[in-house]
From TrEMBL:
It comes from Melghiribacillus thermohalophilus. It is an enzyme of class 2 (transferase). The lineage of its organism: Bacteria, Bacillati, Bacillota, Bacilli, Bacillales. This is tRNA (guanosine(18)-2'-O)-methyltransferase. Pfam families: SpoU_methylase. InterPro entries: Alpha/beta_knot_MTases, SpoU_MeTrfase, TrmH, tRNA_m1G_MTases_N. Residues 52-190 form the tRNA/rRNA methyltransferase SpoU type domain. It comes from the Bacteria. Its EC number is 2.1.1.34. GO terms for biological process: tRNA guanine ribose methylation. Keywords: Methyltransferase, RNA-binding, S-adenosyl-L-methionine, Transferase, tRNA processing, tRNA-binding. S-adenosyl-L-methionine binds at S127, I170. The keyword Protein transport does not apply. Signal peptide: none annotated.
Length: 237
């Protein structure tokens, strides 16, 4: 394949064997370093849509970015967004381009977002300190789960809480009874992904079709913007 060295061919062998790299997309992958191609493949094998994130009116760009960065770090592919008073504009210095590797889905309303996610088989678990809230360690992860986080000041709206399946909280031993929303997201994602991965088995990870779809997207995002445009317009084949 192309001008690959023997050691590179060995490193990329699983990608050729499983159909991630082939002659039809050679004009793309031959412009990407073999180590990069392999790293994207290895990361995809750890990605999940079993756990997702839903944010409602998280307005601060630093918080938006930090949530994206945590989702990416813990292998969570999908982040669903309902904007509040401010546009969704995550700080680039905080996100470190994490959003480049995620699937961001923007919804017009929180009701629409929750109904769509429930139709897709998810339970909606809301970060909300209520009498009925379960500790994050006790969230039922036997089914696909969406963790929902709300506005920095007002939290999750009443209508969203009414539609959610369960409230959860992070137990604390100090005087403070709440975390910054991005910190809460990071702690919750760590705990929930860890337990879900153990309990859900293979169901936790992406299927081959979805992985190949994302792999192509990631390859395209890796390209220089000018080159990417040429590929997209068919000027480079």
């Amino acid at each position: 394949m192309g001008h690959l060295e023997e050691q590179d061919l060995a490193m990329l062998e699983p990608l050729f064997f499983k159909g991630y790299l082939h002659e039809n997309n050679q004009h793309i992958w031959e412009m990407i370093l073999p180590k990069r191609l392999r790293r994207m493949y290895d990361i995809l094998n750890k990605r999940t849509e079993y756990v997702s994130v839903l944010t409602e009116a998280v307005d601060d760009g630093h918080n938006q970015a930090a949530i994206l960065r945590s989702a990416e770090a813990f292998g969570v592919q999908n982040v669903h967004i309902v904007t509040g008073k401010h546009a969704f504009d995550p700080s680039r210095s905080i996100s470190k381009s994490a959003d480049s590797w995620l699937t961001l889905k923007k919804h017009r309303s929180i009701e629409g977002a929750i109904h769509e996610l429930k139709r897709d088989g998810y339970q909606i678990i809301a970060s909300n300190l209520s009498h009925d809230a379960v500790p994050v360690q006790e969230i039922d992860v036997s089914k696909p789960t969406v963790l929902m986080f709300g506005n920095e000041q007002s939290g999750i709206s009443a209508k969203a809480l009414d539609l959610s399946d369960q409230d959860f909280m992070i137990p604390m031993d100090g005087f403070m009874q709440s975390f910054n929303v991005s910190v809460a997201a990071a702690l919750s994602l760590y705990e929930v992904t860890r337990r879900a991965k153990e309990q859900a088995g293979d169901q936790y990870f992406l299927d081959e079709e979805r992985k190949k779809e994302l792999y192509h997207q990631w390859m395209m995002k890796t390209l220089n913007p000018r080159v990417r445009k040429m590929v997209e317009t068919g000027k480079m084949k």
